[in-house]
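Lecture notes, continued. The same structure-token format from the folding unit now serves as the input rather than the output. Read the line below as a description of shape only.
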């Protein structure tokens, strides 16, 4: 009414920075709903798709570990009532692009998989609290499995940009599911561990981590995607006094804080504490998270 953009009207990439009334969308609000054109959308293996969109300037302010809540088209005649959270896999600020790497598991992601280049993806974000990179760290270790590998991409990218060494340990069922190794190779060293040859066993990953600690290449730990690998990093982090962060996944509804669907228990100074994964996380201190 007063010329302010209506709260639920999505920002359209390339069109919305100044509305027809000449009013800019509020700059003090960190997230927005935006319609982002799909640039490419390809299968990387039998289960995962790689989605690239042209992003608004606010969406491009996303930091590693943050996520977007995506409005997925319905894959059938029913409605999809909730958005689906997806963390970013790669941020290309210069090129104005955001990338997602996601697993097709249910109705939401099957609907998402139908989007074709030229379609618009409705995204809300960037949301949540992402990873932190301490300037004192010289070499960090990222350890991911499954969809967790996607979430660890941007922190590895950020570490490389800041001249911090990265060793990425990527755990997968077999070589087909070692995704994004090219992205991680750009950032540093990659160690693939597989179920198919037994190298993904916790004892073997522990040995790899012990070697990195001995070589002073583990100033910090980052992990996502596997409870047993999270528990391993937490145990070694505690034993060797290595700080760490874990990106957690939790079923969400609003993704914005009010519904409390995403509450999990954490352990802070020996006491249980409830936190919302969507706005207190999804990235948490490794020692305060209790696993799943
Ligand atoms: C912060 C965050 C980041 C994520 N990043 C990625 C990513 O980069 N790549 C990727 O493949 N997946 C990621 N996920 C998981 C992704 O959100 C789910 O796989 C997806 O919501 C499943 O939706 P669906 O309708 O296809 O499946 P269904 O199983 O049919 O989903 C049913 C409902 O459960 C919710 N849900 C189901 N599984 C999850 C889950 N693991 N986490 C949260 N909500 C879930 C859905 O949103 C939906 O409301 C992330 C989850 C969170 C919370
Ligand atoms: S999803 Fe609603 S509060 Fe976190």
């Amino acid at each position: 009414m007063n010329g302010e953009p209506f709260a639920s009207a999505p920002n359209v990439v390339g069109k919305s920075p100044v509305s027809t009334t000449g009013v800019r969308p509020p700059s003090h609000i960190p997230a927005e709903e935006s319609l982002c054109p799909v640039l490419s959308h390809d299968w990387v293996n039998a289960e995962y798709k790689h989605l690239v969109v042209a992003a608004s300037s606010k969406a491009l302010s996303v930091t590693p570990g943050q996520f977007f809540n995506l409005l997925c088209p319905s894959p059938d005649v029913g409605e999809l009532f909730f958005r689906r959270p997806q963390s970013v896999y790669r941020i290309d600020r210069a090129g104005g692009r955001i990338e997602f790497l996601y697993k097709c598991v249910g109705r939401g992601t099957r609907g998402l998989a139908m989007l074709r280049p030229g379609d618009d993806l409705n995204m809300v974000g960037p949301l949540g609290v992402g990873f932190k990179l301490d300037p004192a760290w010289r070499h960090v270790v990222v350890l991911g499995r499954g969809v967790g590998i996607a979430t660890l991409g941007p922190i590895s990218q950020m570490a490389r940009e800041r001249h911090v060494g990265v060793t990425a340990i990527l755990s997968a069922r077999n070589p087909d599911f070692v995704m994004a190794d090219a992205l991680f190779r750009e950032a540093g060293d990659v160690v693939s561990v597989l179920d198919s040859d037994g190298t993904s066993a916790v004892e073997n990953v522990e040995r790899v981590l012990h070697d990195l600690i001995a070589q002073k290449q583990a100033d910090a730990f980052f992990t996502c995607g596997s409870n047993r690998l999270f528990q391993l990093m937490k145990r070694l982090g505690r034993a060797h006094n290595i700080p760490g962060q874990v990106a957690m996944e939790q079923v969400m509804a609003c993704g914005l804080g009010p519904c409390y669907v995403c509450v999990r228990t954490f352990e802070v100074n020996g006491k249980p504490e409830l936190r919302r994964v969507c706005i207190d996380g999804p990235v948490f201190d490794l020692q305060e998270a209790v696993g799943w």
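Point for the exam: The CA atoms of residues 167 and 189 lie 5 Å apart.
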